[in-house]
Task: inverse folding
C-alpha cells in the first residue's frame, strides 16, 4: 500500500521522525498523540499498518504517524502529497459510511509513484485483500476543510473487511477523527502560542524603548527566531511619505535597499494595511497585492535582489501601522527548500505589525517630546542667563547706592528725618541685594547646562551650621528648636553649598512663619540608598490652594498673615531646583493654622552602605 497521504507523492520528505519532532510547527506531544492513535488502530482492528496524515496550509498532506510495519514506517513517515491528488482518488472510491475504499482495479497511479507497497501476494479471490487496495478515512473539520487522513493496510486475515468489520472500523474512524482534530487544534494552538510569545516578547522589549533605532535593534532577533527567518527588513515611513530604513540579514550586515524597492514596499504596505493582509513573495512569484502593479522587469529585479543581495528564496511582507495609519513595513526572509509561510504565521505576523505600530507611535511621540524638551532646555538656559545678567547689572548700582549712603551717614550734622530716610534707604538696598543674590543663585541652579559636581556631604554638620547661623533669630522669637539627628555622619551625595542653601532656606522659612514661642523640629535620617532631611514647624500653615504653586518662582502666599512677613518668593523655588538637580524629592504636608512639614529625600553617598 502507498499509503495514505503518500499516493503519487513526488515531494520532499523528512528523513526521520526526529526531524518532524524538531520542526518548529510540529510539537513532540502532537506527533506522539497521533502515533498512539495509529497504534491503537493496528492493535484493536486487525490491520498490520495504520497511518495518519495531516493537512498543511490547506494544500498538502504530510504523513506524521505510521504504526505497524517498520518498513512502512521507514518509507512513509514524513512523505508529502497534494490534497487535490488525494481527493481525486477519493472520487473513485466506494463509500462505506465514513470510510472510502479504492479497489486496486480503480487505481489511476503508477506503482513506481507509490511510497510503499506490501509484499502480499495477490489472490484471485474477489474478497481477498490486494496489495494495491486503499482503505481510507478522510478527516474533515466542522467547516468541511480537509484536515487529515487515516489509512489502514494489510488486514491480518488477508480479506477485505465485511459489514461487521466495516462498522467497527467506522466507529474507530470517528473516534480517530475527533482525536486527530483535537491533536491538530492543540498543535495549531501551540504554534499560535509560540508565535504569540514571540510577539509578546517583542512588545515587552520595545515598549520601554524610546527610539525607533532601538526598537528595530531589539525586534530583529526576537522576530527572526520566532518565525524561523534568516533576515528582517523593517522600513518606517515619515509623515511626508519618506522612510528611514534598516535592514538586518543573516550576516549581521546592513543591506542597501534600492529606492525602487523602497517605493514599492511603501505602496504595497499601504495597500496591505488597508486590507489587513500580508503578502508572500518567492523566487517563482511576485507579490500578490491587490492594486499593486509590477511589470516583468520589476519582478525580475526583485527576484535578483532577493536571491543575490538578501540571499533569500521567499519573503513575507507585513504592513506596520496603528489605527488607520500605515507606519511602515516588515519583510522576513527564508532560504532553502522550506520557504512556505502558513496562514497562522501570516495572521501572527500581522498582529506583530500592529504591536510594532504601537511601539513606533510611542517612539515617535518620545522623539517629538525629546525635541520639545531640548527646546525647553534651551529656553531654560536662556532664562537663567537673562536672570543672571540682570542680577549682575543690578549689583553695580546697588553697590554704588550703598556706598553713597555710607558717605551720607558719616556727615555729623544730619537731622533726625534725614537719618531716618537714610536708614530706610539702607534697608531697601539690603533687601534688593538679597533679591539679587537669590536671583543669581536661582539662575545657577535652574540652568540645565550647569554641571553638578557631587561629593559626600554630612547633613548633620550642615544642620548644625545652619542652626548656628540662625541662632539669634530663634532666640529673638523664643523658638524651641528640637534636633533629631544621629550621632554618626549621614552623607548625602551632592554639592555642599547647595545643600546648605536647602537646609538654610527651609529652617529660615520655618522661623519666619512660626509665631513667637513656637517649636521647630529638624531631623536627619539615612538608609542604604537615601538620606532624609525633615523640617517641621508649628507655624501658620499653608492652604491646599497655595501648596499647588508653592515652588513657583516669585510666588507669595495668599494668606494675609504670610504676606505681612517680607519675602522674595524665591526661597522655596531655589530649594526645589536644587533638590531636583540632585535627583532628589521634596514633599510638603501642611494644614492652614496647624504648621508645616517639609521632607527632602536625597541620594546617599555611593557605596556608603557597603562601607
Result:
Amino acid at each position: 500500500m502507498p499509503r495514505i497521504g503518500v499516493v503519487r507523492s513526488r515531494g520532499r520528505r523528512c528523513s526521520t521522525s526526529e526531524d518532524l519532532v524538531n520542526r518548529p510547527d510540529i510539537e513532540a506531544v502532537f506527533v506522539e498523540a497521533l502515533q498512539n492513535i495509529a497504534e491503537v488502530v493496528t492493535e484493536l482492528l486487525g490491520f498490520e499498518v495504520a497511518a495518519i496524515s495531516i493537512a498543511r496550509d490547506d494544500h498538502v498532506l504530510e504523513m506524521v504517524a505510521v504504526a505497524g510495519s517498520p518498513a512502512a514506517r521507514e518509507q512513509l513517515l514524513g512523505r508529502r502529497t497534494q490534497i487535490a491528488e488525494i481527493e481525486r482518488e477519493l472520487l473513485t472510491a466506494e463509500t462505506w459510511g465514513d470510510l472510502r475504499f479504492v479497489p486496486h482495479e480503480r487505481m489511476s497511479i503508477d506503482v513506481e509513484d507509490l511510497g510503499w507497497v506490501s509484499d502480499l501476494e495477490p489472490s484471485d479471490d474477489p474478497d481477498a485483500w490486494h496489495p494495491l487496495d486503499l482503505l481510507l478515512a478522510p478527516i474533515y473539520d466542522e467547516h468541511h476543510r480537509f484536515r487529515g487522513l487515516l489509512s489502514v493496510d494489510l488486514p491480518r486475515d488477508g480479506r477485505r473487511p465485511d459489514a461487521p468489520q466495516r462498522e467497527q472500523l467506522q466507529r474507530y474512524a470517528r473516534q480517530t477523527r475527533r482525536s486527530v482534530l483535537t491533536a491538530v487544534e492543540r498543535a495549531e494552538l501551540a504554534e499560535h502560542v509560540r508565535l504569540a510569545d514571540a510577539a509578546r516578547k517583542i512588545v515587552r522589549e520595545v515598549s520601554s524603548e524610546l527610539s525607533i533605532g532601538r526598537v528595530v535593534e531589539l525586534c530583529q532577533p526576537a522576530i527572526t527566531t520566532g518565525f524561523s527567518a534568516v533576515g528582517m527588513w523593517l522600513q518606517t515611513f515619515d509623515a511626508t511619505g519618506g522612510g528611514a530604513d534598516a535592514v538586518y540579514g543573516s550576516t549581521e550586515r546592513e543591506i542597501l535597499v534600492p529606492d525602487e524597492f523602497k517605493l514599492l514596499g511603501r505602496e504595497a504596505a499601504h495597500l496591505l494595511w488597508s486590507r489587513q493582509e500580508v503578502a508572500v513573495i518567492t523566487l517563482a512569484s511576485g507579490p500578490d497585492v491587490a492594486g499593486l502593479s509590477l511589470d516583468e522587469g520589476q519582478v525580475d529585479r526583485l527576484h535578483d535582489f532577493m536571491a543575490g543581495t538578501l540571499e533569500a528564496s521567499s519573503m513575507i511582507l507585513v504592513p506596520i501601522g496603528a489605527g488607520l495609519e500605515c507606519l511602515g513595513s516588515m519583510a522576513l526572509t527564508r532560504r532553502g527548500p522550506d520557504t512556505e509561510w502558513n496562514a497562522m504565521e501570516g495572521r501572527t505576523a500581522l498582529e506583530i505589525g500592529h504591536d510594532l505600530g504601537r511601539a513606533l507611535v510611542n517612539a515617535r511621540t518620545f522623539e517629538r517630546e525629546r525635541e520639545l524638551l531640548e527646546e525647553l532646555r534651551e529656553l531654560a538656559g536662556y532664562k537663567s542667563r537673562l536672570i543672571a545678567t540682570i542680577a549682575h547689572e543690578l549689583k553695580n548700582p546697588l553697590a554704588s547706592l550703598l556706598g553713597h549712603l555710607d558717605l551720607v551717614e558719616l556727615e555729623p550734622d544730619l537731622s533726625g528725618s534725614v537719618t531716618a530716610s537714610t536708614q530706610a534707604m539702607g534697608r531697601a538696598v539690603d533687601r534688593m541685594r538679597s533679591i539679587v543674590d537669590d536671583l543669581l543663585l536661582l539662575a545657577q541652579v535652574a540652568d540645565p547646562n550647569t554641571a553638578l559636581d557631587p561629593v559626600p556631604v554630612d547633613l548633620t554638620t550642615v544642620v548644625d551650621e545652619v542652626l548656628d547661623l540662625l541662632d539669634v533669630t530663634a532666640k529673638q522669637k523664643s523658638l524651641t528648636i528640637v534636633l533629631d539627628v544621629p550621632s554618626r555622619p549621614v552623607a548625602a551625595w551632592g554639592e555642599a553649598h547647595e545643600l546648605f542653601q536647602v537646609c538654610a532656606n527651609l529652617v529660615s522659612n520655618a522661623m519666619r512663619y512660626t509665631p513667637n514661642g513656637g517649636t521647630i523640629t529638624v531631623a536627619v535620617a539615612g538608609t542604604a540608598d537615601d538620606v532624609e532631611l525633615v523640617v517641621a514647624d508649628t507655624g501658620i500653615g499653608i492652604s491646599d490652594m497655595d501648596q499647588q504653586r508653592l515652588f513657583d518662582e516669585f510666588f507669595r502666599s495668599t494668606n494675609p498673615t504670610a504676606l505681612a512677613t517680607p519675602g522674595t518668593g524665591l526661597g522655596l523655588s531655589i530649594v526645589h531646583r536644587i533638590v531636583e538637580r540632585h535627583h532628589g524629592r521634596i514633599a510638603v504636608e501642611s494644614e492652614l493654622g496647624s504648621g508645616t512639614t517639609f521632607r527632602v529625600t536625597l541620594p546617599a553617598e555611593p557605596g556608603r552602605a557597603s562601607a
Summary: The two ends are 80 Å apart (CA to CA). The chain has 16 helices and 19 strands.
